[in-house]
Each structure stands twice: as C-alpha cells, then as structure tokens.
C-alpha cells in the first residue's frame, strides 16, 4: 500500500463534469486519493469549495456546479 497522489487539471475537471456531472467531480476529489495536487485556477477553486461540502452539502454542491458550468461556458466561447 502506498501514498496515492492525484493530479487534477482544469481540463480534467471539465471533462469529468461533462461525462459524470458534479457528483463525478466531487468523487474524483474525495475518493481514493491521499493528496490532491491541482493545476489551474478552476481545479484550485473547486478544491477550495470542497470544504463547503463538509458544512452544507447542498450549498457546496450548488457552488461547485455553478463554478464548473461557468468555466465550461467560458471555454466554449473561447473556442
């Protein structure tokens, strides 16, 4: 058994969100990793928002979903 680090990029967050929704992103951050290493503004912001889930699941879930959806729309407009 070893120490499992998970590297999460903005692109990974957007891809997981498109394929599995907000719950998929939350699972990616919270299940099976001993340490999370983020790369990018979105990935870092989502990591920070995970703390809200501990206190208020509904509010945290909604904030995470809103941030990711906004980033996804912005990326689509840039393309």
Secondary-structure blueprint:
Layout: E1 5-9, H1 10-30, E2 35-39, H2 41-55, H3 57-78
Parallel strand pairs: 1-2
Instruction: Give the structural class.
Output: alpha+beta
Q: Proportion of β residues?
A: 5-15%
The number of helical segments is: 3
**N- to C-terminal distance:** 42 Å
Alpha carbon gyration radius: 12 Å
Uncertain segments are: none
Strand order of the largest sheet: 1-2
Q: How much is the average pLDDT? A: 94
Name the helicity range: over 70%
Number of domains: 1
Total number of strands: 2
- The helix-strand sequence is EHEHH
Estimate the global geometry from the Cα principal axes.
Answer: globular
Q: What characterizes the major β-sheet?
A: 2 strands, parallel
Description:
With 79 residues, the protein is an alpha+beta fold. The chain has one domain. Helix content is 73%, strand content 13%. It has three helices and two strands. The chain has helices at residues 10-30, 41-55, 57-78, and strands spanning 5-9, 35-39. The chain has a two-stranded parallel ribbon. β1 (5-9), α1 (10-30) and β2 form a beta-alpha-beta unit. α1 packs antiparallel against α3. It is globular, with a radius of gyration of 12 Å. The termini are far apart.
